[in-house]
């Protein structure tokens, strides 16, 4: 009920999940894979992000995938999917968050 009482401008205010800065409210999801030959570990970064945090997270996740993602049979294929998937999501995010 408290939300309904807020002015419209406050309802559309979003904050970055990493730094807490006010942001436009674009959502980004990035997948990270760690291949460990016989095992693998997956991590997902998702949420509303500001542009600098999204750029930083994208670079971190993609570099991790490039260097540590491939080491394993399943990991090899998972990483081959995650790299273009993350790139596509990031480009989409960057284009949307550009229109402020
Ligand atoms: Zn941020």
Describe the structure.
With 100 residues, the chain is an alpha+beta fold. The protein has one domain. A two-stranded antiparallel sheet has the order 1-2. Helix 3 runs antiparallel to helix 4. The protein is elongated and about 45 Å long. 22% of the residues are buried. The structure holds zinc ion. Zinc ion (ZN) binds next to helix 3.
Task: Name the features.
binds zinc ion; two-stranded antiparallel sheet; 100 residues; alpha+beta; 4 helices
Gyration radius, in Å: 17 Å
User: Number of domains in the coordinates?
Assistant: 1
Within the largest sheet, what's the order of strands? 1-2
DSSP, total strands:
4
Summarize the structure.
The protein has 100 residues and is α+β, with helices and mostly antiparallel strands. The protein is built from four helices and four strands; from the N terminus they run ααββββαα.
